Amino acid sequence: MAPSKIKNEEEFPPQELHLLRDIIPPTAPEPFYENYREGVPIALDIGTSSFKVGLTSANTPNNVFDSVIARYRDRKALKTLTIVGNDVYRDYSLKSSTKTPFDGALVTNWDYLELMLDYSLEHLGVTSNNGKLNNPIIMTEPVGCPLSQRRGMYELLFEAYQAPKVAFGIDSLFSYYANSSGTSNGLVIGTGHESTHIIPVLNGRGVLSQTKRIDWGGDQSQHFLGKLLALKYPYFPSKLNYHHTTNLFRDFCYVSEDYQQELNHYLDMDVLETKDIVVQAPVDITVSTEKKKTEEELALQAQKRREQGKRLQEQAQQKRLEKLVQKREEFEYYSKFKEEFPNLKPEEISRRLESDGFDDIEDFNKYLTSLEKSLKNAAHDQGAEEEVAVDPSSAWPLVDIPDDQLTDEQVKEKRKQKLHKANYEARERTKELKREEEEKQAKYEAEQAEWRERDFDDWSTSKRLQLAELISKYKERAKLLESFKDRKSAAAQQRMKNIADLANDETGSTSAASRKRRRNATSTIDNDPNDTFGADDDDWSVYRDITNVSIEEQQVETNNQILSLEDELLKYDPNFHHEDTFAASQTFDWKNSVLHKFIHGPRQNITIAMQAEGIDPEEIANHPEIIKKNHQIHLNIERIRVPEILFRPHIAGLDQAGISEVSQDILTKHFDGIFSSGGQSHSIIQDIFITGGLANLPNFTSRVVNEFTAFLPIGAPLRVRKAQNPITDAWRGMQKWAQNEQDSQSSYITKQDYEEYGPEYIKEHGLGNVCIR
User: How many domains, the chain?
Assistant: First the structure.
């Protein structure tokens, strides 16, 4: 067989593989703080994604852990253990029972939150000699925090922990405070885990009345990426969990600076070569170590199977013979019993029939007839199985003798002999035709072999010309069949004309053929003078014209001839490959297939390549490289599609405006809209601040610059910056705010305030929520 011409891996270098990352368990337990002091405020940034906890006397939070909790029941010790934060991932069995106290941005399980706060305070080394928490608390809360949330938090902090005083604030404003002077103007874009908020800031204070929210954050992004991949690979062997999609989003997604332009060319081969990411899911490829059997071993195994089959046939034959002997004995016994009927009384006959299990004489006769028929069939089958050589000259002596010279019994026997002779002659004719066909085929193969040895180039050229001619005929008939689907084509019009002519023959057609049929009306099948169709054999050809049967039969015959020629060329011509066959030429060009490049990247799918080479399907399915490829994900367009939702929420079905549109509305309609010196909008656009987890996406800052430049006047002093650390800068802002007594001291709510004014009481400050009156 000719080798394949496919050089997929030679034309392109192998793509870099990225392993599908799950959560990485921490190697060490959560650290305990050793420098605890009473009276120092404790900053708690309790986000729906992670907790950041620490004393404000430190520069960084002491503990940063995921907002998860798990409960484990130790049946031997009869204790229920509570595992919090990163410690949950240290035991694989706890992953299935992982929970969170949040539902969206709000707390729904206050017991879980209390356990997580206990865990946080314990790792801070909090101690007390009066049973109370002796440190002020600074805590984050969502924008527009509802009263029920604030009430629950007050009860937990003041009644459960007996905290002296508490202050609440918004994480994105704390982050802005950590990266500014505290009195500057700007626009904060806070990309959180559950939503994104755009908050204008004047003189260091957030303008909450003009704050806007987009219901899209990091959690929705990873869920959306998971849905896209499930739609892209519906039969992917491995299941992607929350941590898989989160890591894929964090590691490989980025914000496109010009989404539409990049999307138009993303699947171009040169672009896809650099931007397609191949992620390999874990897969166990077990290489079979079984030694391949030799031809002698295979032949011996086949011989054993034949011997076993022969033994089974002999056993079945023995059982049939035993049943046949039993039936013969029963037939002889019941036949003798039937002969005794005239000598027996009816009562005695009924008694004996009943003792033998028969209902009546009719049932007995039916069983006896069935036995006789079974014995005759068995004798006939046995005679067929034991067929011996027949001498035609003496096997049927009565065939050539006239009936008038035979008795009646001999005439009946003559008919049987004539039937046997006809069957014998039919079998001999079939054997002769088969023998002639084999001789013809052997002669053809010998001639072809002699031709190849004499002049191989001439043989190959001739076969290729025959193949090209057959393919040309096949394509022409295919076009003709396709044209029948168009009722305006010439072929379809001719077929309709044939149908119309056939109908006109019944209603007085003036054609010569019709007149001739009407003159010969007596020759019709049903003697109807008005229906002469079928009197002429040529009439029936019209059905082949209107049903395309002849064309379809010719297509099947031509296709068989093409396959036969291709088999010869594949067997003997080293320059003829599977890629040169007619079937391979009908396959699609994967380089021009958008769907192929979207799913398989800038490389040909190895399964299609191996199928084109004619490799056995079972071998393809079990090929180690195929199994490995089936566990791969190609990230390309998803890398920019998911982050683009922040700017075009309609991609995910959100009926909301994106960051740029919301920002434009705030700057032009909710403030003075003056972008020249002295205007509010002029001072705000000089500090566009991006914070939150999604701020770490590459190109986020440059994309915001492009979007704002598009709607701002020429020469507007735009400045866009990102938080120094978008994840922990909120905690750093809380620490900085706590150390500034001028800003923070008057913003705490004491336990006495809570007991006197209730949970509805709120003290406003520039970094927290306000009371809407």
Answer: 4
Contacts of 125 (CB under 8 A, 6+ apart): 32, 33, 34, 35, 36
- Is residue 214, in this structure, part of any structural domain at all? no
> What angle is formed at CA 88 by the lines to CA 84 and CA 92, rounded to 5 degrees?
165
Contact predicate 743/203, CB 8 Å: no
Q: Do 15 and 601 touch, CB atoms closer than 8 A?
A: yes
Is residue 341 one of the residues assigned to a domain? yes
Chain centroid offset of residue 387 CA:
59
Is there a single domain that holds both residue 64 and residue 165?
Answer: yes
Q: Is residue 123 domain-resident?
A: yes
- For CA atoms 128, 131, 134, 135, give the dihedral sign: positive
Residues 368 and 241 both lie in one domain: no
User: How far, in Å, are 24, 104, 281 from residue 243 at the CA level?
Assistant: 10, 18, 13
| Residue in the structure block whose two tokens are 């969170």 | 100
Same domain? 277 vs 336: no
Tell me: the pLDDT tens digits for 141-161? Answer: 999 999 999 999 999 999 999
Tell me: do 352 and 260 sit in the same domain: no
Let me know whether 383 and 417 are in one domain.
Answer: no
Tokens of 446: 């010998």
Strand-pair partners of 190: 197, 691
In this structure, what token pair is assigned to residue 522? 């007596």
CB 690 within 8 A of CB 241: no
Q: Are residues 57 and 128 in the same domain?
A: yes
Instruction: Tell me the pLDDT tens digit for each residue of 186-241.
Output: 999 999 999 999 999 999 999 999 999 999 999 999 999 999 999 999 989 889 99
Q: Which domain holds residue 427?
A: 404-454
> Which amino acid type is present at position 598?
F
Number of neighbours of residue 35 by Cβ within 10 angstroms: 11
CATH assignment at residue 741? 3.30.420.40
User: Which residue carries 């002698």 as its tokens?
Assistant: 296
Q: How many CB atoms lie within 10 A of CB 215?
A: 14
pTM of the model: 0.68
What is the C-alpha to C-alpha distance for residues 535 and 546, in angstroms, rounded to an integer?
Answer: 19
